[in-house]
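chain below, 201 aa
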Amino acid sequence: ASAAVAEVAASVRGKNKRAEADLRSSELYAARSALASCLDGLPAEERLGLKDLHGVRGCEFDASMDWLSREESNPSLVAARSDHKTETADSLKAHRHTVSRLAGAVGKANATAAAKRAFDAACKTPGPADACVAAAKRVVDAAAEEAWSEIVRAFDGDAAAAAFSRPAVDDAAAATKLAVKGWAAARERGARAKSDDCHRR
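prediction:
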């Protein structure tokens, strides 16, 4: 009888440990998902590293408070607190690494220096600036596509997940194209000034 009782007790302890492990695993997963959802919900400017709006620190704080709430509901989760801290730190580190990659990619879309070189190379001879503008815009468009491709790669090829960043890429390209228009206008003003000077002479 005592052997049977011991066997039953061992079985119960085993089931309790498995249930506790399952609870810990599911709560850790839920906490990771909540943190990921918070980070994914940050403004695009912050997710792309263009501005620090302190949202990441807010998500980190929310993650800590969320876990304390889970511990209050299930005291057994206190034993998993260090696991939660480690997972939170790893998630934030991965997020910051991705932000760094995205910031670098968006920066490539603002290809002002490369566009200016292309513009100048196409404008070595007198004449309308159309060819110069076209050459510079080709460089800008290529840079924007390269930036977009790099961002999609950062999201493991998921263009839908990366879609929030497309406006920033387009804005960077548009800013460079605006500069190209300015270069063309300056070239035309210079050409007119030379022509007027010639006429005066």
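Helices lie at 2-40, 44-47, 55-73, 81-109, 112-122, 130-154, 159-162, 166-200. The chain has a mean pLDDT of 85.
thats it, cya
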